[in-house]
Amino acid sequence: MSKPGIAGFSTRAIHAGQPPDPATGAVTVPIYQTSTFAQEAVGKHRGYDYARTGNPTRAALEQCIAALEGGAHGLAFASGMAAEAAIMQLLKPGDHTVATDDLYGGTYRLFRRVLDPMGLTFAFIDGTDLRALERALMPATRMVWIESPTNPLLKLIDIEAVASMAHQHHALVVVDNTFMTPYFQRPLSLGADIVVHSATKYLGGHSDLIGGTVVLNDGELFERLAFIQNAVGGVPGPMDAWLVLRGLKTLAVRMREHDRNAREVASFLSDHERVRRVFYPGLPDHPQSELARRQMSGCGGMISFELTGGLEPARHVVERTQLFTLAESLGGVESLIELPALMTHASIPAETRQAHGVSDGLIRISVGLEDTADLISDLDRALAQA
Ligand code: P1T
């Protein structure tokens, strides 16, 4: 924190790690676009020696995201995947990870295609089923990896229950908090050990950067991750770190609006005759609305839905919306639409995807901040044409 006694979320978003620049008084953290720092004598410097190891703009972001997640330490990475890979480098061959079966396709690909061949082992389970988790935990299990809500089916995982079960088996709990952001959900306060984000999404919020962050409390684990961050080098440049910092300042207002828009869009979709099923934790008929109220203070801007008729009508809809842009990613001010099976989750084999409940015709939308009525009429028009 830059000033003692400041505790509110938006105040932290705007001030944590961001006192006026000590050299010039600039009220915005400068973009320290430099690769190295002059040393007065060998090893004598002002806290920075080489920009892979540390950069003041990145350090401001690391302090700010830690303050927002309510954690002691933050680390920033070049992408969400670089952050995930760094966390997984805490493990060694033979170590076992239990992960939720519904998760971002790139995370599945990292686990299956990169880490599995290197000797790490994985079990994928339905994270809503605590008995399945209990069965999957083995003596070699070192980590439990969850997303809540999951991408793309918006299933909720009971973070507190998972953490207490995993800790009995001495496994670390990692929560990918990308969909909720710390504004709506703070996994560390529910018992998680590590929170990871694709900062590309809501944290940045404007679809203009790729980034990742990690937040945790444990000092020793932080030292190991900071070592990996420097030794492996998947760090963000100062410009991207600065863009995330700028995004964070409006995170609270954006999330409130994403949530408000998404609730109206979800309710429109669930009343539409061409829509068979809507996945959104804010709908009263979501099977886990009680858990939603317990562990989240909002439901965010992500919705998935299925049409009657499967893939072809779904393809028509995503190719016919005009405001909802057909694109991968999420969490920006502009609304996006996509088909997970053919786009964001195409790296998961079809049989696995279908077994996990991701049908070929599933449509995922990221509800942006445009006017609600315009978003609904865009979807209405595309659905009528499908
Ligand atoms: O794209 P990158 O910043 O590397 O983040 C990867 C990532 C991690 N975790 C979650 C929950 C994600 O959704 C993502 C990236 N997801 C998309 C690009 C997408 O459209 O779902």
Task: Report on this structure.
The chain is 38% helix and 15% strand. By secondary structure, the protein is α/β, with parallel strands linked by helices. The chain has 2 domains: 241 residues, 3-Layer(aba) Sandwich (Aspartate Aminotransferase, domain 2), CATH 3.40.640; 134 residues, Aspartate Aminotransferase, domain 1. The protein has a 7-stranded mixed β-sheet with strand order 1-7-6-5-4-2-3, with helices on both faces. Helix 4 links the parallel strand 2 and strand 3. Helix 1 packs antiparallel against helix 2. It is globular, with a radius of gyration of 21 Å. The model has no long low-confidence stretch (mean pLDDT 96). Bound molecules: ligand P1T.
Task: Summarize this entry quickly.
With 386 residues, the protein is an alpha/beta fold. It has helices at 9-15, 56-69, 80-88, 105-115, 130-136, 159-168, 181-184, 219-232, 238-249, 251-271, 289-295, 311-320, 350-355, 372-385; strands at residues 73-77, 96-100, 121-125, 141-147, 172-176, 194-198, 212-216, 275-279, 302-307, 325-326, 336-338, 363-366.
